[in-house]
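User:
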Amino acid sequence: MADDFEKAILFSFDQSGRVDPAVKAQAEAYLEQVRASPDAWQLCLVRFESSAYAEVRFWCAQTLGALARHSHALLPPAGRAALRAALVAHGTQAAGGPPLPGFLKNKVAQAIVALAGHEYPDEWPSFFQDLLGTLSSGQPAVDLFCRILVAVDQDIISLDVPRSAEEAKQSMHFKDSMRERALADIADAWCRLLAAYSGPAPDAAAAVLETVQRYVHWIDIGLVANDRFVPLLFNALNAQHEGLRGAAADVLTEIVSKRMEVGAKLSLIQQLGVVPVCARWRAGLPAVDEEPELAVKYARLLAALATEVLEAWKKVENSVLSMAAVGLEVDAEASSEASAACATAGQLMDALFPAVLAALRAGHDEVAAAVVPFLLSYVARLRALQKRGGAEGALPPGQAAHVPAILESLAACARFPDDSAAYEVAASSATERVAAEEEESAMADRRQDLFTLFRNAANLARPESYRFVGGLLSAALSRGQAGGGGGSAAAAAGGGGGAAWQDVEVAVSLLYQLGETAPEADMKPGSGVLAQLAAGVMQAEVPAVKHRLVALALLETYVRYSRVLAAVGGAALAAVVPRFLDEHGMGHPSEAVAKRAAYLFCRLAKQLRAQLRPLVLDILQRLEPHLAAIAATPTPEAPQTKSSGVTGGRGGAGQGLLGTVDDRLYAFEAAGLLVGQEDLPAAEQRAWVAGLLQPLVAQLEGNLAAAAAGGGAAAAAAAAAGAPPPALLVQQALEAVTRVGKGLNVKLCTESRPELGALLVGVVQSAVAVPRALPSNKQLRARFISFLHRMVECLGATLLPYLPSALEVLLYAEADATDVTDVLLLLNQLMLRFKDALMPVMQEMVPACIARVHSLLPSDWDWSGAKATPAALATPTAAAAAAAADGGGKPAAAGSNEDLRERAELQRAYYAFAHALVHNKLSPVLLHAPPGTLDAALGALMRGAATHVDAGVRKTCVQCLERLVGEWCGADGSEALPGFREFAMKQFGGEVLLEGLAAQGSSVDIRDAAAISLLTEIAQSLQLVHARCGEPYLAHLCGSLLPRLGWPPEAAQQLVAHITGSETKALKDFLKVVLQQIRQAQAAANGR
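Assistant: Predicted structure:
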């Protein structure tokens, strides 16, 4: 029956939820009191021995370790000795009782090491000898010995653990003491234990080797690389026990990886005799299929060995080359030694290289991944050798022979397995789909490095790489023809004599990779070898093309070699283009292929726009059913998966893994590019453009009422019939029109073919109804704004008469902060494009925008931005907690962090809007705005310029006010607005430029580059105000403002002198010095 102490521990460990939280907290508080008591270690020892509960024994062992680690000085010397003896006795089972489970053995070992960390070697000099003395008592003692050595490495020695300066010093002292006092005895014990336990208890022998592995990198190599230990190591490498063989391989990996001089490293590798053992793996790594984890360890050993040989080889060569480069003569003896070392390294590499390639071809991801870094380094070395060869660039014969073997092995490693889970068109079940996704994702990861290595190797020997890939393509295509065509099930499965889809896919993918880094001459149509290979594939009937991965690889490759396609033209163009539009591309039964084909065809249309002109009619006819289907079947985007195809897993278009737009819409962009060419016949072009736009407008108009009705009868009927929501259909049509517009430029639509512009104007008039009907639909608003941006590029100034109605619906009465921000950003772009031509539009929009902004940023809004900084937003508020409790999907709660962030973004957009307004010849709009508009705008700019925490925002506001002063205050004393000159002198020139800069708590940090830029802008503004307002401004500074701010008279005179007679830079430097002095005085006054 558990007593209170044991119950408290059991309650604290409870994860079932059945223990009352208050009771659990009470139990934990009680246990903290136990830990803090002077006799806690005695209680824990007793309960560790006597308790029947594993949780109690675990807590006691853990507490003993914590006491030894953190409260060692409080333990009496006699108590320490008793604790040491008891822990060792329990760990070795000398105290009797049932065997301890592994987790308790670990805690006992960690507690012993915590004591030793404080006591070895001064107080407990016999620590390791005491442990070694227990080994004769049997396997439990051996197990504890290994666990203690592991804990010593983890808790005291390892450099991977961050340590304080004192801990690092203690670690070094412990390490040095081990070297002097114990390592020789420990190494001797390793040999004895390995010899004794390899046969009867291989798990214990494996544990010994796992311990050795941790120490090899810092102990004397002679302790393990000797005639006594190495034979035992190779016996373990040939043992029947998988764990023992793996541990032996790991120790050998550490031995060959140990840092040492080149000559010593090569001698060590030869003396170990490990190269002949690894060389036997040229026929394949042992245990790849039966014991893949063991095969990974073998591969790591092989890679480490090959890497060390390569590094030694490079160091010898580089040392000789470096001496020659600086004009030093290499004596005969050194030259002979270097030649001998290089010869040795070459022989070792020749012996190991076939085994490395066998590991690459093993068909196991981790095995292949282990040797890829070595191969990357090896190919880089071959590249360096090739450069040293001068113009010829020939590799030494031995190394040149390695290149074709590398290419062949890479192709084998990049090939999908015969039993691949990658389905042909569609998965028959969720299980099959998941299996395929996992395999393709793993292949994508693998191919990233493999294809990099392939390209690098191909660059070493391009003719050989072309012959190799050409051979793969020829074999795949010929087998496909022999098998009776690529669409058969036998061909797709690789049976019946036809080409396996895996062979076709990898051959085409490698052809794509060759084109990534090919020189210009090889890509030249007609004479280039690579161009001829690509042209052959374009005109061939490729087998297994029904398989989605083969289809994707082919389409990617067609686009990659579009220049070849353009040059060949004729039959090749007529053969390839339909493949993007028929069942091989957009009509492929796999949705992924159809989507990707639309994107790739758009890319092809951009690159071959002129060459495709004769085929426009045929292409549009083939595209028409796809366009109709895409428009009528919008799909909510799901996260894209990694592409395992020819691009090597970076995503098909080089995009990220998350998509936000239906890729099929690229088909509309391609159509727009094709019909937007100026050389097309005018009548046909108009008909084609109308044919593209009219169905989309009809879809938009036909679904808008139902979308606006929301849950109306029409929407309910559509949902019942399985049709897409009307709002999604409207969105799809709007986005499709935008895509079509990408092919139509402003010159074509307004000068060459204005009838096309008229078609687009009609679309604009229809599209304006979308945000009017659905003002709160964020997705539709975003699509409509994107549509307006595109129409600006298509229609130019023709769009201006239609902008007011479009902008008006965007700035609806319930528009929130993000909605208004979007409108301001749109207006910024329009102002930059049209400048003062936008005056009539802005006369309506500016008052409305300013009024809406100030309704969202009321008088109590913090214009300094201090409450919306990342640090401030990181502090939870009551509103933020309420918003989190309500969940997502609702507008940001007033006062919540999200609300503050959105309104802060609105404020920044407002300032950018004002900046664009005054810098694009549109400031007269403010002069003629309704009463209150100008005052509101100037007030916001003044507060931003004087108080905002972001120096960049302050600079924007200062620039706005500076421009207004320059335009509205004439040098002759005139002013565009009564009283504005006085405003410029006192409010802008005084309160903003000087008082705001020096205010207590100002955020301007003169160490920041943005603050220095702000000071430069302020200096320019001070001189501008003086130029426009003259002596009255200086009189205001010296007679009123500066004395009020506490400036000494001499500082005021210096400021006036700089304003009137210095360069802007000198004035800026003066302001910097003054500001620094003010900050120091403020700090002193605050007692900091």
